[in-house]
Amino acid sequence: MVKLDVFPALKGYRFPRSIIGYAVWAYHRFAMSLRDVEDLLAAWGIVLSYETIRDWVNKFGRYFAGKIRRGRPMY
Predict the structure, then answer these.
(1) Mean local confidence (pLDDT), 19-28
(2) Distance separating the N- and C-terminal Cα atoms of the chain
(3) Three-class DSSP labels, 25-61
(4) pTM of the complete model
(5) Per-residue pLDDT averaged across 50-56, rounded?
(6) Residue 31 pLDDT > 90, yes or no?
(7) Mean of pLDDT values over 43-71
(8) Taking the domains of the chain in order of start, what are their residue ranges?
(9) Which end of the chain has fewer CB within 10 Å, C or N?
(10) Residue 55 pLDDT level (bands cut at 50, 70, 90)
(11) Distance between CA atoms of residues 3 and 45, nearest Å
C-alpha cells in the first residue's frame, strides 16, 4: 500500500487518513467498483456511501494512481 505519511492534509474529513487512503487505494489497485469498496468497508464496520468514496477517488485518486504505477516493475 502507499505510504500515507506524505498524503495530502485531510482536515475537515470525518474519517481518518488511513480509511480514506485504503478506500482509494483498493479502488485503483484492484479495479473494484465503488459499491465493492463500500461493501468491503462495511464488512469492517465502516458505514459510508459509494458517493463518498467517489468524491474521495475524484479528489485523491490521481495521487494514488501515480504512486501505484511508479511502484510496478517494468517488463
Answers:
(1) 88
(2) 21
(3) HHHHHCCCCHHHHHHHHHHCCCCCCHHHHHHHHHHHH
(4) 0.73
(5) 94
(6) no
(7) 85
(8) 17-71
(9) C
(10) very high
(11) 23
- Nine cell digits for residue 19: 480509511
- Taking the CA atoms of residue 20, residue 3, residue 71 and residue 61 in that order, the dihedral angle to the nearest 10 degrees is 20
Inter-residue contact 2 to 8 (CB < 8 Å)? no
Residue 41: closest CA among 75, 73, 61, 18? 18
Cell of 53: 468514496
Averaged pLDDT of the chain = 82
pLDDT surpassing 80 at residue 15: yes
The b/e string for 15-51 (b: 16+ C-beta within 10 A; e otherwise) is beeebbbbbbbbbbeeebebeebbebbeeeeeebeee
